[in-house]
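Why does residue order matter? Because the sequence determines the fold. Keep that principle in mind as you read this record.
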Amino acid sequence: MPALMPRLLFVSASDESAHHASISDALLRAVTGDTVLVGPGRYSPSQTAERFPLYVPPGVTLAGMAQGECTIDGEGATDISFRPVREEQSLILLGDTSVLSGFAVVNSGGNGVSNQPGAHVLITRNEIRGHGQHGVLISGPQEAIVKDNIFLDNGTKRFSPLTPRGVRGRQGHHIFVQGRGEAENRVIIIDNTMTRAYADGIALVVFFDEPDGVTMHVSVMDNLIEQSERRGLMIAASFSAGGHRARIDVRRNIIRDNAENAITARAAQPLAPTLIRDNSLGLQIFDNECRNSDEGIALVGGFGPAEANQLDATVVGNLITGIKGHAVRVIGGIGFHGHAALDNRVRALISRNHVEDVKGIPIFIQGGVSEGQEEATGNEVLAHVHGNELSAAAGKPSIVVNDGLLGNAVRLAESAQPYVRVGGVTPLPT
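Structure:
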C-alpha cells in the first residue's frame, strides 16, 4: 500500500550515511510513491550483494544520480529463455507504473530490463549494454515507454534457437516487444540510440503460444538503429496464432549499416508448422533514412503455412540509399519450408521516396512465389506507386512487377509510375 507521504530511500555503495547499502534491500522496503535514489558506484552480487531480478514494486521510481556513474552489473546473472521468453530472466523487473532512469545496466546472462505483463512502465535515460539475450524485453504491457536510452552490444550469447518448424532463428535484440493476450500492448520507442545487436535492433512480434486475437500498437520514432547483424527493425504480426491486429508507426528513424534489411514486416510468419490465418498488420513507414544494408524495406503478406492474412502499408517520404538489393520489395505470399501460402494480400501505397545508389531493382512487387515446390496461390498485391525519385542501375528498370506463380496477381493503380511487368516466375530473392 502507498505510504502516507512519498519517501526518498537513498542507496550508496560508499556513503555510510545512506539508508541502504544495496538496491535489493531498498526495493524490499519501497512502496507505491517512493523513490529509490542510487548514488554513484557499481552495484552487483560481488560488490553490494545484489539479488536478481531487482523487482521495482508498483508505483516506485528507481533512479540513478548519474547515468555514467551508477552501474547495475549482473556479472552474468540470469539466463536466456525461449518459448516463452521469460521476464524474470532479467536484471531489473518493473512493476505497474514503475520507472527506471539514470543507470548503466550491464552484463546479464539473459535480459537487461523487463516488465511484469500488464504493467505501465517508463524506461528512460539509461545505458543498456552487454546482455546475453535482449537489452530490454517488453512483454505484454498495458503501456510501455522506452525513451532516450543508449543500447550497445546486446545478444552476447549469440543464441540461435531451433524453432518448432525446424528453422533456426536469432535471439539477441536491443528491444524485443512481445505482444500478449489480455493486454493493450501499447508501446512507444523514441529517441534511443542502438548499436550492434546480434539479431535485430528492434523486434516487434506476437510470439508463440498466445491466444487468437491479440492487439498491439507500437510507435517507433526518432531512433538511431545501426550495425545490427541481421535487421534494423523486424515486425511480425503473428508467429503462431490467428486473428491478431497489429498497428505499427515507424517515423523519422535513421536505420543504417544493418546487415540484412533496414525494415522487414510480415503479417504472418509461422515459426510453428501450423496454419495461421486472418492476421492484420497496419504499417506506416514515414520519413526514415535507410542506409547501407543488403535490402531496404521488405513487406510480405504471409509465409506458409499462412492463409488470408493482410498487410496494409504506407511507405512515404523515406530516403533509401546504399542498398545491395531492392530498395522496396513487396510480396503477397510465399510458400515456404514445405507449406502453402494461400489468399494473402498486401495493399501498399509507395510514394515520394528518394532512392539512390541501389544495385538491385529499386521497387520490386510480386504476387506469390515459393521457396521450392510449395503451393502459393490466390495471393495478391494491390499497390499505388507514384511520385518516387528512383535511380536504377544501368540496364535495369526502376519498377518491376511480377505476378509470380499461376493464380497470384499484382494490380497497380492506373496513375502508377512507369513500370515493367515481367512474366513467368521471378525467383524468390535470397
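The mean pLDDT is 95.
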